[in-house]
Amino acid sequence: MKNVTDSFVSLGHWPSAGSFGFNTDILATNLINLSVVLGVLIFFGKGVLSDLLDNRKQRILNTIRNSEELREGAIDQLEKARARLRKVEIEADQFRVNGYSEIEREKLNLIDSTYKTLEQLENYKNETIIFEQQKASNQVRQRVFQQALQGALGTLNSCLNSELHLRTISVNIGILGAMKQITD
């Protein structure tokens, strides 16, 4: 076994004339060794390389196909979204128009209600003024009547003496007696 190990160790020391072996000098490698190595690589690696390239080609084609499908789906979704957006914009415009008309209607109702309230307040004010005028007028009348009555009593008291006073009382008693006889 020592001979086999020695033969591997001494590969670089073999003489080149008349013997078969590996040339470990990279610069001295000949064209035949390279062509043999390339031939072996091409012969055995062609199937593997072809399979690898075919698999890569199929993955690229599948990726392109999937991308196209995703693109078409995205375009469909985009069109649906645009249609929904247009629908929502139309509805928003309708709500806006309806809202403006509703606001205008509410504004007119509020103005009408305010005018009615103002008219009621004006009527209440006028009624209150009339009531206060009547009240003041009644108070003035009562005061004038009281003053007139006091003035008449004062005049009567100053003009009547005791004799005239007694005569007036007896006349009034006579009138009351006559009224009593008429009613009986």
TrEMBL record:
Membrane topology of the entry: Single-pass membrane protein
Signal peptide feature range: none
Record localization: Membrane; Plastid, Chloroplast thylakoid membrane
Pfam families: ATP-synt_B (PF00430)
Annotated keywords: ATP synthesis, CF(0), Chloroplast, Coiled coil, Hydrogen ion transport, Ion transport, Membrane, Plastid, Thylakoid, Transmembrane, Transmembrane helix, Transport
Superkingdom of the source species: Eukaryota
Transmembrane stretches, start-end: 26-49
Cellular component terms per the entry's GO annotation: chloroplast thylakoid membrane; proton-transporting ATP synthase complex
Example of a GO MF term: proton-transporting ATP synthase activity, rotational mechanism
Coiled coil region boundaries: 64-98
First-listed, main subcellular location of the protein, grouped into a coarse class: membrane
Family of this protein: Belongs to the ATPase B chain family.
Known role: Component of the F(0) channel, it forms part of the peripheral stalk, linking F(1) to F(0). F(1)F(0) ATP synthase produces ATP from ADP in the presence of a proton or sodium gradient. F-type ATPases consist of two structural domains, F(1) containing the extramembraneous catalytic core and F(0) containing the membrane proton channel, linked together by a central stalk and a peripheral stalk. During catalysis, ATP synthesis in the catalytic domain of F(1) is coupled via a rotary mechanism of the central stalk subunits to proton translocation.
Subunit structure comment from the entry: F-type ATPases have 2 components, F(1) - the catalytic core - and F(0) - the membrane proton channel. F(1) has five subunits: alpha(3), beta(3), gamma(1), delta(1), epsilon(1). F(0) has four main subunits: a(1), b(1), b'(1) and c(10-14). The alpha and beta chains form an alternating ring which encloses part of the gamma chain. F(1) is attached to F(0) by a central stalk formed by the gamma and epsilon chains, while a peripheral stalk is formed by the delta, b and b' chains.
Note: In plastids the F-type ATPase is also known as CF(1)CF(0).
Protein name listed in UniProt: ATP synthase subunit b, chloroplastic
Species per Swiss-Prot/TrEMBL record: Symphyotrichum subulatum
UniProt lineage: Eukaryota, Viridiplantae, Streptophyta, Embryophyta, Tracheophyta
